[in-house]
Amino acid sequence: MYLTLSLTICIIAPALFQGTAVRSREATAVAELSRLETIWNEAYVRGDATALDRLCADDLVVTMSDMQVLNKAKAIGIVRSGKVKFQRYETSDIRIRVYDKAAVVTGRLQRTRNAGGHTAEDDWRFTKVYIRRAGTWQVVAWHASTVALTVSKLAARGVEFTQESRTTAMAWSRTPRLRATSLSSYTNPNTKSDSDEEIWRV
Fold it and tell me: Under DSSP, is residue 148 helix (H, G, I), strand (E, B) or coil?
């Protein structure tokens, strides 16, 4: 009986220890990634291209709504140029999942930015992929898509609709030529030149 009990303990103990060690490593990784997410957000508000350069891998790919795909040089170059200023860059509903040397961060991003004298508000859902190389976490992919805007949400932003456009609940999301009588806070990016598009959207 004692022999059986001893053998059982010898089998179970390493498994329990291994499980505890894995959870400890994941908790440490989550804490570090949370710290890096804070640095990322603050870097945009400060216009700190150097901090973003450290956070981003050389093979970074950035994909956002209504915008061409950007590499690391272009994405950070926009911040470094100072052509876009962020007054607000806040994330919420954050979820961090760790897969050994890779991690996925998802959440909501709300930004206020100014470019060329124009101020815009962004409300996005994002997905960010980190890879750990030589003990350091870096972002290799970042994707953000606009949160669906209903007629009521657009109205709250100061957009006044004609009766024709109001009867089509998702008219704005389907066509850029929404018939609005006043665009006090919404500016259609499709009216800008191609050269302005990157600066306006990023």
Answer: coil
